[in-house]
UniProtKB/TrEMBL annotation:
Record's protein name: Malate dehydrogenase
Family from the record: Belongs to the LDH/MDH superfamily. MDH type 1 family.
SUPFAM superfamilies, alphabetized: LDH C-terminal domain-like (SSF56327), NAD(P)-binding Rossmann-fold domains (SSF51735)
Listed GO biological process terms: malate metabolic process; tricarboxylic acid cycle
Source organism of this protein record: Cyprinus carpio (Common carp)
All residue ranges annotated as the Lactate/malate dehydrogenase N-terminal domain in the record: 9-151
Higher taxonomy: Eukaryota, Metazoa, Chordata, Craniata, Vertebrata
Amino acid sequence: LISLFHNAKVAVLGASGGIGQPLSLLLKNSPLVSELSLYDIAHTPGVAADLSHIETRATVTGYMGADQLGAALKGCEVVVIPAGVPRKPGMTRDDLFNTNATIVATLADACARHCPQAMICIISNPVNSTIPITSEVMKKHGVYNPNRVFGVTTLDIVRANTFVAELKGLDPARVNVPVVGGHAGKTIIPLISRCTPKVEFPADQLSALTGRIQEAGTEVVKAKAGAGSATLSMAYAGARFTFSLLDAMNGKEGVVECAFVRSEETECKYFSTPLLLGKNGIEKNLGLGKLSAFEEKLVAEAMDELKGSIKKGEDFVTNMK
């Protein structure tokens, strides 16, 4: 019951967009949230008015335009950022870089100024670069805390759980596949060998399943045929991660989620692994753990791309006006 009455103020930056609207709806529906602050460059008053009629306790306020960004962030404990442009068919996540890097840097700068202690959850792609961008911007302001900045990779875990469950005839709600590495193509590394319950696949099926998990985002981009990328499943995954974080902040024990964070677990400066969450964000990085030979190879093959994406993000902030 305690956590039911914990007052958490959560901001969604990019709340009017394809991910932002369903994400805001899921957050409004949760008893963990007492105040929901919605920010975007357009349409937020309407989204906020609409959500405010839902019979749950969270109060909803909409903020629109750069001059209201500071007010949107004041007093927030968790900030979730799905702002940016989505992929179109034929685009990689990296093709979004120029537009989304600027958007994320601007929003991270505002977080550093107005809610430096908040947990920052970045959804905006390319996550492999936007997390280094967020971190470097926070560093410039002297408020960087690596335990409070998360790249939300939860959709990779959600997809892995779903696809494994489909192949094995299991209830997906009871399947848990850790996914490590990054959040783009071959940097997405599902650890099927560590799935609970234990599952086994022949080599060819394992390879196909791994490829499907890695390219699942592209599967949706193609199916939407120019009308965007994964928004509804991403909103679900973003909400799942946010709820886990809020539970942990409320003192719930044993909350583990994977996320792309500052890391000493590999030779990459940022890497996603299972994390034990706590009151102050990352309580303990649980590391890579035991990998199969197949998974070891996937990790080795992901390193160069991941390092390049990280450097690209860091360089962007270095060269910023």
